[in-house]
Design brief:
This is CobQ/CobB/MinD/ParA nucleotide binding domain-containing protein. One of its GO terms (molecular function) is ATP binding. The chain is α/β, with parallel strands linked by helices. The chain has a single domain, classed as Rossmann fold (3-Layer(aba) Sandwich), CATH 3.40.50. Helices cover 40% and strands 12% of the residues. It has a 7-stranded parallel beta sheet, with helices on both faces. It is globular, with a radius of gyration of 21 Å. It starts with 20 loop residues before the first helix and ends in a 10-residue tail after the last helix.
């Protein structure tokens, strides 16, 4: 920062009591966050210091991490192509694999359909947590504590759940985005109890890419039904991720219930032109259609062509990233 580049800060006249260490820490943390946000707004690249994990309580079902990093797999695409169904299928595959230590299902679509497809019960959304701070202070430390508590509250039998819910206005978490990214990194990706697999049902379209809310993805699966609009969305997501410099290790294209060979050839051709990996096609299945139509959990599937195909896809994604499949790591 140059000498001429002044930084204006509002200094609050708050003097905590001598014995109020927590209040003092929150004041310091809050104002540090304000400085960081101002610098970010002015275009400075900020490298955040590592933060001490504040796990006040540890779930008995969560195990300490024994892997190098989380694998974060996101499903994106035009609305209505089946992202949520395929996210649920992958979660079902991961849950059935031996030695899978921990899974987090993230529903970033404001419509919050993924929990129903998973048969989840008694869960809270991030938007409900944030709503409690509307118009008031949002101390970073308090936010991180409540974020961790939300993960613990949303534990299901085979996975944990993080539904984003409805955001500010039309699904945007602008005012808490920096806090959310920090908490997500600390408790989901890098902490002592980080998750082995994170599956994200992304919101429809490209906005999540443009806003960089998909910046944590290691794998991006773009779903298409073969329609012209969904093929255009593949191209738009690919170009937008490059424009905003989102570093995603591997990008894939997955057809969903595309029956015509000519259409599948066109999808594969576009995938190759964009340098993306074509994962094939998820076949139609009456049982999947029935469960989806009735809003019943995909976990009810014991065996089906879509489930078998998703098992192949899961193995391929793991192989591309150089990770051994959990049930082979005995």
């Amino acid at each position: 920062m140059s000498e001429d580049d002044t930084l204006e800060l509002e200094i609050k006249d708050e003097t905590p009591k001598p014995d109020s260490r927590t209040q003092l820490e929150e004041m310091l943390e809050e104002n540090t966050e304000r400085v960081v946000n101002i610098l970010r707004d002015r275009g400075y690249e900020i490298i955040e210091p590592s933060q001490k994990s504040e796990l006040d309580k540890v779930s008995e079902t969560r195990q300490k991490s024994s892997f190098e990093e989380s694998q974060v797999i996101g499903f994106a695409g035009k609305g209505g192509v089946g992202k949520t169904t395929l996210s649920a299928l992958l979660l079902a595959v991961l849950a059935k694999k031996e030695n899978t230590r921990s899974i987090l299902a993230v529903d970033s679509d404001p419509n919050t359909c993924l929990p129903g497809m998973l048969g989840a019960k008694n869960y809270s959304t991030l938007s409900e947590m944030v709503e409690g701070y509307k118009g008031g202070r949002l101390p970073p430390r308090k936010f991180r504590q409540e974020f961790n508590s939300l993960l613990l509250q949303n534990e299901q039998e085979y996975y944990d759940l993080l539904p984003m819910g409805k955001g500010e206005g039309q699904g945007c978490y602008c005012s808490v985005n920096n806090l959310l990214q920090s908490a997500f990194r600390e408790f989901v990706l890098e902490g002592e109890y980080s998750y082995e697999y994170v599956v994200v049902d992304c919101e429809a379209g490209i906005e999540h890419i443009a806003r960089k809310t998909s910046a944590f993805l290691s794998d991006l699966v773009i779903v298409t039904d073969g329609s012209k609009m969904s093929l255009n969305t593949i191209k738009n997501i690919h170009s937008t991720s490059k424009d905003v410099n989102i570093e995603i290790d591997s990008k894939y294209v997955l057809a969903n219930q595309v029956n015509e060979e000519e259409a599948l050839n066109e999808i594969e051709k576009i995938s190759n032109e964009l340098g993306m990996i074509f994962l094939g096609n998820i076949p139609e299945d009456k049982e999947v259609e029935r469960l989806t139509r009735k809003g019943e959990p995909i976990s009810e599937l014991s065996s089906s062509p879509p489930l078998k195909k998703m098992e192949e896809i899961e193995s391929k994604i793991i192989a591309v990233n150089g990770r051994s499949s959990p049930d082979k790591a005995k």
